[in-house]
Specification:
Strand content: 5-15%
Structural class: mainly alpha
Shape: globular
Helix content: 40-55%
Strand order of the largest sheet: 1-5
Number of strands: 8
Largest sheet: 2 strands, antiparallel
C-alpha cells in the first residue's frame, strides 16, 4: 500500500480503505523538495537518473483506470450493493460525482507529480530548460568538463521530455489547467504557484515532445528491439500527433503519423493463431507493435504491476480464461455488458479482453477483464507491461486525422479490423461521414479496451469526429445500463444519470482538495461544479 506523510484529515477515512497498488511504500513529503545537486557528476549518474525516471512512471498506473475506463462506457464496478468506501469512490467516478477529497484522485495526482519532480531534477542537471516565450526546450552552455557529449546530453533530455509530456498530457486531460513545473522549485516557491491555463500546459507539452522528436533515437524498430523500451522519435511523433488531434489540429497530426507508418519499422502483429493476444504476452514484450509502454518486472523486487490482482475475480469460481493471481484480488474494472455486446461474436479481441461467467439467474452475465490478467506468485507482482502507444493506435489516429473515407484510410481501418474479425468491413458500410466516424470510433473502442484510452477518445471525438458526441454516447450508456443503476441502495433513474452528463463535472475531475486547503498563501481555484 502506498503511504503518504502529508495528507489532509479529510482523507483519513478513505486512506484506511485505500487500494493496495504495489508492495513498496512511496513517501511523498513534498513533491517540490529539491534534489541534491551533488548527485549528477558522471555519465553513469545520468544513466541511473534516467532509468530512475522511467521507474517512476509505474506508480500512477494503479489509479489511472479509475479516472479513464470507469469514467467511460467501457467498465464499471459490478458491486451495486456495496458500502465499502473505496468501492463508493470508484462508483462516484462512474457517475460523475467524484468529490474533491477522493483519495484515489489525489493519489493519481501525487504519484504523477512525484514522477515529474524526478524528471525535472534530471533536466535541471542537463541544463535543458523550458523557454515559455518561444515554446521551446533550450540548452544552456556547459563547461568543458561536462561528462556527456552534446548528442548524449540531448538524447537523455529528449527521453526526459517525452516522459514529462506524457504526464502533463494525462494531467491536463483529467484536471484541466494544472501547476506547470518545468524545474525543481522549493516548498516556499511552490506555495506561490497558481494553476496554469490548459493552453499554457499544451504549449509546454508540445515543446517537450518536439524536443523528444528531435533528440530521441531515430533507429527503426528492428534495430532497437529488446533495448529496454526507451522513448524514441517514433513514440514522440505518435504522442505529439495525439496531442494535435486533441487540440483539433488534424492537419498537424497527419505528417507525424505518416512518418511513423512509413519509416519507424513498427507494424501490426498478424502472424500466428492469436496475433492480438500476442501483443500483450509477457513473453513477447516490446514487440513490433509497441511504440512505448510502461514497463513492469515481476520477481518480488517492487517493480511488478498491481493490475492483475486489482482486476481479477474476488471469488474462486472458475471463469473460462481467467487466472487467479496470488494474494488479495479486487474484482475491479469490470467490462460492461454494453461493451461485450458491442463486439462481433467472432471478434477475437472480445475473447481476449473480456472473460465471462454465467451467473444466477442464468439470464445475467458477469464480466471480467482479460487484459492485464496473469498468474503471479506474489501480491501485486505482475510482469505485464502497460502499453501507452501501439502501432494500431497510429493507424487509427491517421484515419481520425484525415477524417474521411478514402483508399488509404479504408486500408488502415481494415488492417486493424481484419486482424481480429474474419468478417471484413465493406467500403459501402463506411461510405458516409457518420458511418465512417462510427467505424473508426468503434475500432478504437474494441482495440484499446482496458488500455485507459476510451474516455479521452470520447472527449476528443467531439472535436475530431463530431458525429460521435461524448455526451450522447454516455447518455446512451446510462440508458443501456439502467438495470444496473436502479439496483443501488439509493437507485438512479436514467433521467438522473443523463442529467449528470450535462453537469460541469462531466468534463474534468476535481483538483484534489488537499492542494487547495493546504495552500494558505495563494488561493487555488477548483474546477467548475466541485
Amino acid at each position: 500500500m502506498k503511504t503518504y506523510n502529508k495528507i489532509n484529515k479529510l482523507f483519513i477515512l478513505f486512506s484506511i480503505f485505500s487500494l493496495a497498488s504495489c508492495s513498496d511504500n512511496l513517501d511523498v513529503d513534498n513533491v517540490n523538495t529539491p534534489t541534491q545537486d551533488a548527485f549528477y557528476k558522471s555519465a553513469s549518474d545520468f544513466t541511473v537518473g534516467l532509468n530512475g525516471c522511467y521507474s517512476t512512471l509505474r506508480a500512477p498506473i494503479a489509479y489511472e483506470w479509475m479516472l479513464t475506463e470507469v469514467r467511460s462506457d467501457n467498465t464499471y464496478l459490478n458491486n451495486y450493493g456495496t458500502t465499502n468506501p473505496q468501492n463508493l469512490q470508484i462508483i462516484s467516478n462512474d457517475v460523475f460525482e467524484a468529490p474533491s477529497f477522493d483519495l484515489f484522485i489525489e493519489q493519481y495526482w501525487a504519484t504523477t507529480y512525484t514522477s515529474i519532480r524526478s524528471i525535472n531534477g534530471l533536466t535541471d542537471a542537463l541544463g535543458a530548460t523550458y523557454n515559455q516565450s518561444t515554446g521551446t526546450i533550450d540548452y544552456a552552455a556547459t563547461a568543458a568538463t561536462f561528462p556527456l557529449s552534446t548528442a548524449e546530453r540531448k538524447r537523455i533530455a529528449g527521453e526526459a521530455s517525452f516522459m514529462r509530456a506524457y504526464h502533463y498530457f494525462n494531467l491536463v486531460r483529467t484536471y484541466g489547467g494544472v501547476f506547470l513545473l518545468d524545474k525543481i522549485v522549493t516548498p516556499d516557491e511552490a506555495l506561490l504557484l497558481s494553476r496554469s491555463t490548459s493552453a499554457d500546459i499544451y504549449k509546454f507539452i508540445i515543446a517537450d515532445l518536439k524536443n523528444a522528436k528531435d533528440n530521441c533515437t531515430t533507429a527503426k524498430y528492428l534495430a532497437t528491439a529488446g533495448t529496454g523500451g526507451a522513448a524514441t522519435k517514433w513514440a514522440a511523433e505518435a504522442l505529439l500527433a495525439k496531442v494535435y488531434l486533441t487540440l483539433g489540429q488534424k492537419t498537424d497530426a497527419i505528417p507525424l503519423l505518416t512518418d511513423v507508418i512509413s519509416a519507424s519499422g513498427h507494424s501490426l502483429i498478424t502472424a500466428g493463431t492469436t496475433p492480438y493476444a500476442d501483443v500483450f504476452s509477457a513473453t513477447n514484450e516490446l514487440n513490433a507493435e509497441i511504440l512505448f509502454a510502461i514497463r513492469f518486472k515481476s520477481g518480488s523486487l517492487g517493480y511488478g504491476s498491481s493490475l492483475s490482482n486489482l482486476f481479477s475475480s474476488t471469488t474462486d469460481q472458475k471463469i473460462t480464461g481467467l487466472v487467479y493471481p496470488t494474494g488479495t484480488r479486487g474484482g475491479y474494472n469490470n467490462p460492461t455488458p454494453e461493451l461485450y455486446t458491442s463486439y462481433a461474436t467472432n471478434d477475437t479481441r472480445r475473447t481476449f479482453n473480456i472473460k465471462t461467467k454465467t451467473a444466477t439467474p442464468a439470464s445475467s452475465q458477469l464480466f471480467w477483464s482479460g487484459k492485464h490478467n496473469i498468474a503471479v506468485a506474489s501480491l501485486n507482482d505482475s510482469e505485464l507491461d502497460c502499453p501507452v502507444l501501439r502501432y494500431s493506435d497510429v493507424l487509427l489516429m491517421y484515419c481520425e486525422a484525415v477524417g474521411v473515407y478514402n483508399t488509404t484510410t479504408f486500408a488502415y481501418l481494415t488492417q486493424v479490423h481484419n486482424r481480429s474479425v474474419p468478417t471484413a468491413i465493406t467500403a459501402a458500410s463506411v461510405s458516409t461521414q457518420a458511418t465512417y466516424e462510427k467505424a473508426v470510433a468503434n475500432e478504437r473502442r474494441w482495440e484499446f479496451a482496458m488500455e485507459n484510452q476510451r474516455w479521452f477518445d470520447l472527449l476528443r471525438f467531439t472535436t475530431t469526429m463530431p458525429t460521435v458526441n461524448a455526451k450522447a454516447v454516455m447518455k446512451s450508456h446510462f440508458a443501456l445500463m439502467s438495470t444496473y443503476y436502479t439496483q443501488f441502495n439509493n437507485p438512479y433513474t436514467t433521467a438522473q444519470l443523463e442529467a449528470k452528463v450535462d453537469n460541469p463535472k462531466f468534463d474534468l475531475s476535481p483538483i484534489p482538495n488537499v492542494e487547495i486547503v493546504t495552500n494558505t498563501k495563494n488561493p487555488i481555484t477548483q474546477n467548475t461544479g466541485y
